[in-house]
Amino acid sequence: MSDPLLSVRDLKTHFRTDEGTVRAVDGVSFDVNRGETVCVVGESGSGKTVAAESITRLVSEPPGEIVGGEVRFDGRDVSEMSDRELRSLRGGRVGHVFQNPQSALNPVYTVGWQIREAIQLHEDVSDAAARERAVDLLDRVGIPDAARRVDDYPHEFSGGMKQRVVVAMALAPNPDLIVADEPTTALDVTIQAQILRLLDRVQEEFGTGILLITHDLGVVAEVADRVVVVYAGKVMEAGDVFEMFDDPAHPYTRALLDCLPGRGDGATTIGGSSPSPTDPPAGCRFHPRCPHAVAECRAGDQPPMNPVGEGESEGEGGHRVSCVHFGPGGDPSVVRGSNGDGETRGDANDVNCGGETR
Ligand SMILES: Nc1ncnc2c1ncn2[C@@H]1O[C@H](COP(=O)(O)OP(=O)(O)OP(=O)(O)O)[C@@H](O)[C@H]1O
Ligand code: NI
C-alpha cells in the first residue's frame, strides 16, 4: 500500500498558561489516505481543533508548542518545512475550512478577488482565467447567480453563503487534503447537508482526503470512512465507521453512541465532568467517569491501542481501542455486557447528549 496522504504520530501540542501546562493534544496518532474521509469526534475541549491546527502548524507559538510527535504530509515531515513551504502548504495542497467563516474572509476584498488570490498563489494563471474559475467554484458550492456575486464583499453574504465561499476558497487550489473543523455547526441542516454533499462530490472527483472534525455523530455515520474518538487529548478508539458503530469498544464511545436516536435511551448524560486539562488523571483519562474502571485503569499511562476484533490488525487502519478490557488478559465482555450485545449499555453511563452532539 502506498504511504498515507497524512500521517500523524504521537502528536503532542501543549499550551503554557498561568494555570499550568495545558496538554491539549497529548499523543494522538491517525492517518488520512487519499480519497478517504476521517472524522475526529469527541466532546468540547478534547483537543480536536488544536490537533487540526497542528497539522500545518497553525497553532500560535507561544502560548502553544508542538512538543512531540510527527506529522507527515505526502511523505514529508512538516516540521522540516520552511515558513515559505508551510505557507504554500496551507491554502494550497491542504485546504482549511474553519468553524467561523468570518475569520477566513477578508472584509475589504470581494470574494472573487480572494478566490483568485487563492488560485494565483499556487498557479500561474491569468486574472481572467482565475476569475472564471472563481465563478465556476462559487457556482459549484451552490451560490446562485455566481457570475454577479463574484464581485460582492463578504458582508453581502449570509452566514451559510459565507461558509460556501470559504469552501470555494479552500477548494480553489485543488487541494489533496481538506481539513474541515466543524464546518457546518453554525449552519441550518439543509445547508449543512449541501456542504457535506459538495465535499463528497469533490472527493469523488479528485480523490481528495478529508479530515472532518465534528460533534455530530449523525454526520459521522453519513460521511466517515474511518473515525477517531478523542478524549482529553488522547485517542480512545479508532477504526472503520461500520465496525465502530456496530461494535463500539471504548466505554466513552459507547456512551457517545447511546445519544444517537434509536440507540441507548437517548436521554443519558455522562456523570462527572471533563478532566482538568492541566492536571489530567493517570491511567485512562476516562476512568473517573467510566462505569467499568478497575485498578489497572487508574494508574500508569493511557492504555495502548488494543485490537478490538479477533484477528484485527494492530496497524493504523484497524479497529483499535485504548482500554485494558481489550488488552492481553482482559475481558471485553465487561464492557460489551455479558452476552456481548451491549445490553448493559447505558445504565451507568451518563453522556450529555445535549449541546455538543447536536
Ligand atoms: N491558546 C490557547 N491557550 C491555552 N489553552 C488553549 C488554547 N487553545 C486551546 N486551548 C485548550 O486546549 C484544549 C483543547 O482545545 P480545542 O479547542 O482543541 O478543543 P476542541 O475539541 O476543538 O473543542 P470544541 O469542540 O469546543 O471546539 C482545551 O482545554 C482548550 O482550553
Ligand atoms: Ni474545536
Automatic annotation (TrEMBL):
It is found in: Cell membrane. One of its GO terms (molecular function) is ATP hydrolysis activity. Its main location: membrane. It comes from the Archaea. Its EC number is 7.2.2.11. Residues 299-358 are annotated as: Disordered. Gene3D superfamilies: P-loop containing nucleotide triphosphate hydrolases (3.40.50.300). One of its GO terms (cellular component) is plasma membrane. It catalyses: Ni(2+)(out) + ATP + H2O = Ni(2+)(in) + ADP + phosphate + H(+). Residues 6-257 form the ABC transporter domain. InterPro entries: AAA+_ATPase, ABC_Ni/Peptide_Import, ABC_transporter-like_ATP-bd, ABC_transporter-like_CS, Oligopep_ABC_C, P-loop_NTPase. It is a peripheral membrane protein. GO terms for biological process: peptide transport. Keywords: ATP-binding, Cell membrane, Ion transport, Membrane, Nucleotide-binding, Translocase, Transport. The complex is composed of two ATP-binding proteins (NikD and NikE), two transmembrane proteins (NikB and NikC) and a solute-binding protein (NikA). This is Nickel import system ATP-binding protein NikD. It comes from Halopelagius longus.
